[in-house]
Amino acid sequence: MVEPIKVTTQKEREQHLQKAHFNPFLLQSQHVLIDLLTDSGTSAMSQNQWAAMMQGDESYAGARSWQKFYKAVHNLTGFEYILPTHQGRAAERILYTYLGGKGKVFISNTHFDTTRANIEFSGAQAIDIPIEEAKDFNSDYPFKGNLDTEKLKQLFKRHKKNIAAVIVTVTNNSGGGQPVSMQNMKEVSAICKKNKILLILDCCRIAENSYFVKHREKKYAKHSYKEIAMEMFSLADGCIMSAKKDALVNMGGFLAIADKELADACMSLLIITEGFSTYGGLSGRDMEAIAVGLEEVFEADYLNYRIKSTAYLCDHIKKIGIPVLYPAGGHAVYVDAKKLYPHIPVEQYPGQALVCALYEIGGIRSVEIGSVMFGKYDKNKKLIPATNELVRLAIPRRVYTQSHIDYVIEVFGEVLKQSKNAKGLKIIREPAFLRHFTAHFEMI
Ligand SMILES: *Cc1c(COP(=O)(O)O)cnc(C)c1O
Fold first, then answer.
1. Which CATH number fits domain 47-296: 3.40.50.11030, 3.40.30.10, 3.40.1160.10, 3.40.640.10?
2. Which of 88, 256, 366, 438 has its CA 20 to 30 A from that of 23?
3. How far apart are the CA of 171 and the centre of ligand 1, in A?
């Protein structure tokens, strides 16, 4: 499929941005030239996926499309109980509402924003324990997505009975799209088993993570990508997937669990809020497309192109002097806005300033992953900043070509030239949860 993109002038974009209150989430898509806001639900589907959709069986219960979906998810994950949901956060809401509540604690390499929001909304606490090596943006440490197992043991001692679950996110989206090694997953799994704590794999990008395991962990060099994924699933008690990522579809998700009792409890919530157990939040044709996508995403040629093209963008903007999180993650390139704009204090959101500059200068849409997304206020309404001020350039799957990416690199050259002129922002309106989606800003 060919999709036209509309070219705008810088002057027009300045007006569009003002109208969007300097929040690119509030822009209209036809005003965006290259959309790197997210890789979620933005994949181009293959001819085989479209063909499968034509066979969608929309029966309310026990549809053929459900059987195909079940088989695909079961074969990959090994889990027996599978709950289809309309997207990842619906699965999160079901599982974390059931497991969470006041006093409960969840531990993760890094909770993704919707994961954290669902946990905190239930009244529980979400603790991130990425490894120390993840803090160094310049080293070529191969698995910066790993979870700190020493800290995990300490937290198990401190919170004992209150720990609801450990969540390993592969790849670690909010931690820079960095991979988790099989070795780390094995250690986390062993610690959880010993302490009888539930281990959930947030497997949105399981195929991309498998790519890194194969090419960076010697023991797995001869395994297929799918075998690596299957081994990783075997170390967990359940998983949550946003199919909008590595299932190569525009909408969908699921929750898969090994334990019957837990599955039964979740099933009740599924039926109340999503739909009957054999479709959840999905139509038959969606389940068809997911079943095909879960196969295609493990194809070697696809994964090779995918990961290499992300690295291409990262390496080229790094070469011209843009501070990036290195090495590149699987689905996105992360720019260190604090370093690019040292003159903008964190209270004025340097990441948001870069997001605005990329749009104004080049019509590129990106997202801040820093204190806009994760900042909190203390009692005096003073900002407690996030650990990092990053901007994420997420690459939609099977959408952009190298010449699109070359254009992005050129725009970064211009952003760098104008970096001293960039101005900070202040938030003038925000909701209580997930404020980055709808907040309004003003330029300072
Ligand atoms: C996208 C994502 C989710 C949430 O999934 P949605 O389909 O957007 O609701 C959860 N965890 C991670 C790591 C994600 O990337």
1. 3.40.640.10
2. 88
3. 11
* Average per-residue pLDDT for the chain: 96
Would the CB of 87 count as within 6 Å of ligand 1? yes
Q: Which of 40, 58, 78 is nearest to 287 (CA)?
A: 58
429 φ, ψ (degrees, to nearest 5): -155, 135
Cβ of 173 closer than 6 Å to ligand 1, yes or no, is yes
pTM confidence score? 0.94
40: Cβ below 6 Å to ligand 1?
A: yes
Using most ligand atoms within 8 A of CB, pick from 170, 204, 286 the residue to mutate for ligand 1: 204
DSSP 3-state of 3: coil
Q: Using CA atoms, how far apart are residues 27 and 18, in angstroms rounded to an integer?
A: 10
Give every CB contact of residue 44 below 8 A, 6+ residues apart in sequence. Answer: 1, 396, 397, 398, 399
Q: Which residue has the tokens 């039964």?
A: 264
* Cα separation, 88 vs 112, whole angstroms: 11
Instruction: Give the tens place of pLDDT for each residue, 31-55.
Output: 999 999 999 999 999 999 999 999 9
- Tell me if domain 10-32+299-443 and domain 47-296 are identical in fold: no
Beta strands in 170-222 (DSSP E): 199-202
**253 within ligand 1 shell (Cβ under 6 A):** yes
Token pair, residue 240, equals 């949550």
Question: Where is 240: in which H helix or E strand?
Answer: strand 238-242
Nearest CA to ligand 1 atom 1: 242
Residues 428, 441 contacting (CB under 8 angstroms): yes
**How much of the chain exceeds pLDDT 90, in percent?**
94
Helix (H, G, I), strand (E, B) or coil at 253: strand
Single-letter code of the amino acid located at 397: R
Mutate to test the pocket of ligand 1, among 25, 40, 273, 367 (most ligand atoms within 8 A of CB): 40
Is it the case that residue 4 has pLDDT exceeding 90? no
Q: Where are the domains of the chain?
A: 10-32+299-443, 47-296
Assess whether the C-beta atom of 244 lies below 6 angstroms from ligand 1.
yes
Measured in angstroms, how far is the CA atom of residue 54 from the centroid of ligand 1? 27
Report the CATH architecture of 10-32+299-443: Alpha-Beta Complex (3.90)
Task: Render pLDDT for 138-151 as a digit per residue (tens, 0 to 9).
Answer: 999 999 999 999 99
